[in-house]
Structure formats: C-alpha cells, structure tokens
Amino acid sequence: MRARKVLGGLLVAAGLGLCAAAALHYWRGAVAQREGLAELERARLRPIATATPLEETPTPVENPSVVESAVPTPTPEPAYPYGQALARLRIPSAQIDVVVFGGADQAILEKGPGHVPGTALPGAEGPPNNCVITGHRDSHFRHLGWLKPGHKIDLETPETETTYRIVRREIVKPDAVSVLAPTEKPQLTLITCYPFNYIGPAPDRLVLIAEPISPARARHSS
User: Fold this and answer.
1) What is the pLDDT of residues 42-55, one digit of tens each?
2) Catalytic residue list
C-alpha cells in the first residue's frame, strides 16, 4: 500500500512538472511575441537614413598605374538577422496574428514562427523569391490546417505590406527540401508538422504555398 502511495505521488509530481514546463513554454512565447511587436513598431517609426553627399576631395596618387589596375574591394554581405523580429503574419481565416523571427531552430520557434535562412526575406524583392516560414503545430501554427487554396495571408514588414492568396496545399515528408528551393516568381511558403493530432514527433509536413495578389506596398509611418 505504501509503495502504491509513493508511486501515485511521483506520478502526480511528474504531471505537475509537465504542466509547469508547458506553461513556461507558452509564457515565453507570449513574452517574445509582445516584445517582437514592439520591435517591429520601433523599426516602422524609425526615420529612413539618407546619405549626405560629401564634397569630393582629390587624393594624391603616387603611382597612378597601380590604382588603375587595382580590383575594387567587394562590399560585404549583410549579416543574417537571426533572432530579430522580421515581419507580422496575419491570417484571419486561421485566427493567426503573429510575429515572425529570423531563424528556424528550437529557440526561435519557441518565440514564434521562424523564417528559414537562405530563403527570401519577408518583403524582399528578387531571387531567391521563395520566402519560407515555419512554426509549431501545437502553438503559433495550431490552426494552419484550417487553410485551403483561396484563403488570404497578409505579411507586413516595417517597410512593406503584401497580401498573398494560397494556391496550393501539400503534405510532404520532412526531407522534401524542394519546398525550400528558389522560385521564378515571388512566393510565400508556410510549413508545419502534420498531422496536428499526432502524439510525438509528427511524420509529415503540411506545406501551404501562396502567391502575392499584387506587388508589395510601401508602408507609411504615422
């Protein structure tokens, strides 16, 4: 009898521990979303820096022939905005209104949906064109399964607003890297695990592919 009570107590403690861990997980996500919204708003209101023309001053050259044959120094690529709030994703049909962060590892996905590095940044124009965003099926993307072709998606950055329409819905295996590939035309790809009611790591992925209804519109600071 005593052993049974001890076992029962351990099970209750384990259950409470799991509940506490889940509560902490969702609390961290809520805090990150609130901070992400504030970060996006600050970026939206930040004045655009304009370069001030500098008066050209001739530089003395000791050996003109060397200068003429010199190779210009390449401009370094900007660093990837890992962990930063990149955009706000609004999908009324799925009751989704979340901040998207740079990166797609577990630390980022606890905060909210993550942008997959190497794909087009939200609001960017030109190659690779395919902007890929992924999220957890049990938190920020829990209602993604409600969506079908025809539903609309709004993606807002501090500089632009773009409305997309879903054109395709697919169920693929986790190793289907083709969904991350560059595309000829602008495209938004949303990914989450599937099925939604699966216990443990889900075996498949739900992929929603959307195309812009019109070109990105510039946002105006209030």
Assistant:
1) 998 876 544 444 44
2) 136, 193
